Amino acid sequence: MAKKFYEKDADLGYLKGKTVAVVGYGSQGHAQAQNLRESGVEVIVGLRKGKSWEQAEKDGFAVYTVDQAVKRADVVQLLMPDEVQAKVYREQVRPHLKSGAALFFSHGFNIHFGQIVPPEDVDVVLVAPKGPGHLVRRVYEEGFGVPGLIAVHQDATGQAKELGLAYAKGIGATRAGVIETTFKEETETDLFGEQAVLCGGVSELVKAGFETLTEAGYQPEIAYFECLHELKLIVDLMYEGGLKGMRYSISDTAEFGDYVSGKRVIGEASREAMKQVLKEIQDGTFANRWIRENEEGRPEFNRIAEEEKAHSLETTGEELRKTMAWINKGAKESVTQ
Ligand SMILES: NC(=O)C1=CN([C@@H]2O[C@H](COP(=O)(O)OP(=O)(O)OC[C@H]3O[C@@H](n4cnc5c(N)ncnc54)[C@H](OP(=O)(O)O)[C@@H]3O)[C@@H](O)[C@H]2O)C=CC1
Ligand SMILES: CC[C@](O)(C(C)=O)C(=O)O
Ligand SMILES: [Mg+2]
Ligand SMILES: [Mg+2]
């Protein structure tokens, strides 16, 4: 049984009198910094000069270069992209980390794959929201929270877990529930989820459905509504009531089609591919590939990203969404600006 923590299990008092430096002000950084501040925690932001710096200042934070923020901090939460964390850690974090301070992560990649090896006199804690940063902020503002995971890699002070739970409470995660894990389990399951299901799997499923319909001569707008737009509405039902809740709401015709055709689309070959994806995450093949890709200037990443943006699914959707004023554009605008 997973060990779970809620509001009553976490005490914000462990952060009292402490300064939290949120390093990075992107998807997770802006959300965690703002949620913590509204929970009464003293937060500063660490950055390089640029777009995020201006935004963090506009949002009312005291912003410092990374080294200066780390010098002032008792808790340092690294919320830069995973692929830049190790270099920034070596050059601007490690030399200024106070003895007895805490180093926090929201994804275990750099610790688990040995890219960051912290000194023995600091706590090393993972507080990983199980949701995109823009939702971590939006859901908190609505009075709720995105669930999270907590793990302690190193407990130098004897209070690492309590501090982690206080932080999880500060960002709203204990409102929904926080599960205890390890850096290894979080890293491997998070990478698997985003590759096989949430991002990679779903994107390919949507594109395959869209292409099957349009290549058969159906209108792209109808293919878009069927394979992408309505997916959100169906997933909302799953989110609220599981697969059972979704099946309660759809027609019996759809439910029968679900049972007999779903397994043909996601069959043995897909399950075998999932196992291979997981194996390459577990044995470090994916991590090494991602690290090398960045060292080489991201040729594969950039090429595929350009191809994906130009897909007719995207151009069709962009046009259709113009009339859907109710769709929250917050996340999209901040990543495409
Ligand atoms: N995205 C998400 O929702 C989730 C992310 N995570 C984890 O959270 C962490 C942060 O990811 P995410 O929020 O997506 O990151 P983003 O890419 O959204 O944000 C990156 C931030 O880091 C800053 N930055 C980049 N390079 C440097 C640098 N060299 N020095 C200082 N600041 C820098 C950027 O500033 P600038 O404007 O100057 O480029 C920006 O503010 C990762 O570990 C990720 O795995 C975990 C759960 C979900
Ligand atoms: C699903 C992608 C994610 O793992 C997340 C939002 O949780 C990420 O790394 O961005
Ligand atoms: Mg994730
Ligand atoms: Mg992830």
UniProtKB/TrEMBL annotation:
Which keywords belong to this entry? Amino-acid biosynthesis, Branched-chain amino acid biosynthesis, Magnesium, Metal-binding, NADP, Oxidoreductase
| SUPFAM superfamilies reported in the protein's UniProt record | 6-phosphogluconate dehydrogenase C-terminal domain-like, NAD(P)-binding Rossmann-fold domains
The note on cofactor binding and number reads:
Binds 2 magnesium ions per subunit.
Q: Which GO terms describe its cellular component?
A: cytosol
List positions binding substrate: 251
Show where the KARI C-terminal knotted domain sits: 182-327
The transmembrane residues are none
Specify which residues bind Mg(2+) 1 according to the UniProt entry for this protein: 190, 194
Q: What does this protein do?
A: Involved in the biosynthesis of branched-chain amino acids (BCAA). Catalyzes an alkyl-migration followed by a ketol-acid reduction of (S)-2-acetolactate (S2AL) to yield (R)-2,3-dihydroxy-isovalerate. In the isomerase reaction, S2AL is rearranged via a Mg-dependent methyl migration to produce 3-hydroxy-3-methyl-2-ketobutyrate (HMKB). In the reductase reaction, this 2-ketoacid undergoes a metal-dependent reduction by NADPH to yield (R)-2,3-dihydroxy-isovalerate.
Q: What is this protein called?
A: Ketol-acid reductoisomerase (NADP(+))
What organism does this protein naturally occur in?
Marinithermofilum abyssi
